[in-house]
């Protein structure tokens, strides 16, 4: 009986009220986006970030803003932190479950730009050959790079 009543109420709420209810009733997530960005020589862009453990390297990325496509998040973060422009090609993986966080990783290519580090966040940015990644690369980032290298290369632009 209660289920029937709830179903009728749900059907009466059609559209926007249903979305508001769902938004209020469910946990909110932070969405992080990272990228394995290749230059024309096949090297991978890595950053040393001020807020990471000292001397570690990792993939570029950041957190999505409200109403922002994840591919646009990666492009924006790279532009803000390095001054570089990139093309985002394909999704490598999505993981979830860590402290209300969802993380999406993409594969992309370097298009150009002048290196201008956002010194509030980034200490250094460099391209590394896949067989010469720094030992201090975060293990989670190493796994994402491995997945990216096992997928077919992006189409030529």
Automatic annotation (TrEMBL):
Keywords: Hydrolase. Pfam families: NUDIX. This is NUDIX hydrolase. Belongs to the Nudix hydrolase family. InterPro entries: Nudix_hydrolase, NUDIX_hydrolase-like_dom_sf, NUDIX_hydrolase_CS, NUDIX_hydrolase_dom. Residues 28-151 form the Nudix hydrolase domain. One of its GO terms (molecular function) is hydrolase activity. The lineage of its organism: Bacteria, Bacillati, Chloroflexota, Ktedonobacteria, Ktedonobacterales. It comes from Dictyobacter halimunensis. Its cofactor is Mg(2+).
